[in-house]
Design brief:
The structure is a single chain. The protein is an alpha/beta fold. It folds into three domains: 3-86, Four Helix Bundle (Hemerythrin (Met), subunit A) (Up-down Bundle), CATH 1.20.120.140; 102-292, 3-Layer(aba) Sandwich (Rossmann fold), CATH 3.40.50; 298-441, 434 Repressor (Amino-terminal Domain), CATH 1.10.260.30. The protein has 22 helices and eight strands. It has helices at residues 3-17, 24-40, 45-59, 62-65, 70-86, 113-126, 143-153, 166-180, 197-210, 225-237, 255-264, 285-292, 298-308, 311-322, 328-341, 344-349, 359-362, 368-379, 383-387, 394-404, 408-431, 433-441, and strands at 102-106, 132-136, 157-159, 185-189, 214-220, 242-246, 268-272, 280-282. Helix 10 (225-237) links the parallel strand 5 (214-220) and strand 6 (242-246). Helix 1 runs antiparallel to helix 2. The longest helix is centred in the last third of the chain and has 24 residues, at 408-431. The radius of gyration is 25 Å and the shape is flat.
């Protein structure tokens, strides 16, 4: 997520922090680097211009220049301005007094609209809601079937009508929701490959008939400024109340996320961070800014852990980590827990940059095939080897590789990753002990691993 942009911004700010005293020339040089990084990330040039001007005006002030830690002050200013650019605060969905709440999803084809509808339903169900998915996209081949299959796989309520127009489907879906006491209703409307009058007219009619509490536009983050331009058109012609940014886990330069709030004035309410239906996160501007600047996002990490992990197991694992009793069996179990939380890369992004995540762990993939291979390697070890990997010599590695159907290189890689994770956990215990214990007292589950 924003890997290229984040690396460049963090490197620039790291150089500023290393200076005991700052001059206007130092600030100007840093601003040039930040401007270039943002433009390369496909951020709207007008947004970049205003962003840089705002930072510079604050950074060359007397308070910063005369500070004992001017570099740190500039980093704080950049963080504040980035948070403001992204929207300042989390904007939750509307909660109308009259039931059911009505959420209309709009967007172009290929943006992930239908999948996002199911993700939103799953997210709302976690808070005790009984959502209904209404399939109003009758034009894209397979759209109705796709939503029906997603609904069935997640045991979600679903509504569709054959041989009917989208407006009639939406109105009938509302009646069905009222009869079955379902709330909210999520309308998956039709998209197009491009914006046209016919699409906008249909969406406008649906809006007039169902009077949605929210019109959420689904934007593909990987399309950069094209996504921002589409958002402007939809907002001008239909009116949107919020944005769901999809494919934020892909190889995106991040320009859409950093531009769309400033250009449209509409808040980003959710981000899609994976293909699974539970890969939808509420958008917190301050947390995203912290991630981009390498400061981590511990709050989101704790929330993910609380949603997916067993409390007693987490407390027992923390005890083992603190007493340096972390074994390969524990490693296997924790990788399984991490796999349930999402991709390891996303989790690593939530840890502060100061944690010094080893390169070997950043490269650790937790896809199904790789996880099965890890399980096979560890299962081929003796109980003594799992407790004390230091005894695994060359001949033992060959035996383990043969028994697990893998190569010696695979075994070596796993042992190295285990060693790096042991070191990382030891460092976490030293750096974040007070935070973790405070979290346990408040009901958190301790370390999210």
């Amino acid at each position: 997520m924003f890997s290229s942009l984040a690396d460049k911004l963090q490197n620039t700010l790291r150089r500023l922090r290393g200076k005991g005293k700052l001059s206007e020339q130092d600030v100007d040089a840093a601003m040039r680097e930040i401007r270039l990084a943002l433009l390369e990330a496909d951020v709207n040039f007008k947004v970049v211009k205003e962003f840089i001007a705002s930072i510079r005006a604050r950074a060359v002030g007397e308070e910063v220049m005369s500070s004992l830690t001017p570099g740190q002050q500039v980093v704080k200013i950049v963080n504040d301005e980035l948070t403001r650019l992204l929207g300042s605060e989390n904007k939750s969905l509307a909660q109308p007094a009259k039931s059911p709440a009505k959420f209309m999803l709009v967007g172009l084809q290929g943006s992930g609209k239908t999948t996002s509808a199911a993700k939103l339903a799953v997210h709302l169900r976690r808070s005790g809601k009984k959502p209904l998915l209404v399939a109003a996209d009758i034009y894209r081949p397979g759209a109705v079937d796709q939503l029906k299959k997603l609904s069935a796989s997640e045991n979600l309520d679903f509504f569709s009508l054959e041989q009917s127009d989208p407006v009639a489907i939406c109105k009938a879906g509302l009646k069905f929701a009222a009869h079955e006491s379902l709330d909210p209703v999520i309308f998956d409307t039709a998209g197009r490959l491009h914006i046209d009058d016919e699409l906008m007219s249909e969406l406008g009619t649906i809006k007039d008939q169902v009077k949605p509490d929210e019109i959420l536009m689904i934007l593909d983050a990987m399309t950069g400024q094209d996504a921002v331009n589409a958002a402007v058109s939809f907002n001008d012609q239909v009116g949107i109340s919020g944005i769901i940014l999809t494919k934020l886990d892909g190889d995106t330069r991040g320009g859409a996320a950093l531009s769309v709030r400033a250009v449209t004035g509409c808040p980003i309410k959710f981000t899609g961070t994976g293909e699974k239906v539970d890969a939808l996160e509420p958008f917190y501007p301050d947390r995203m800014a912290s991630r981009i600047l390498g400061m981590g996002d511990v709050l989101s990490l704790i929330e993910k852990a609380e949603a997916t992990m067993d409390r007693d197991k987490a407390i027992e694992m923390e005890r083992k980590l603190r007493s340096q009793q972390f074994t390969l069996d524990d490693f296997r179990e924790q990788l399984g827990q991490l796999k349930n939380m999402g991709s390891l890369e996303q989790i690593m992004e939530m840890l502060p940059g100061g944690m010094g995540i080893p390169k070997e762990l950043k490269q650790l993939s937790l896809n199904e095939n790789n996880f099965t291979r890890i399980e096979a390697i560890i299962s081929s070890m003796t109980p003594g080897e799992r407790v004390n990997p230091a005894i695994i010599n060359s001949s033992r590695r060959k035996r383990i590789a043969k028994g697990s159907g893998t190569s010696v290189q695979d075994v070596n890689r796993l042992l190295n990753q285990f060693s790096q994770m042991q070191k990382m956990f030891k460092k976490m215990g030293a750096v974040d002990k007070k935070t973790a214990m405070k979290g346990l007292k408040k009901g958190h589950k301790g370390f999210p691993f």
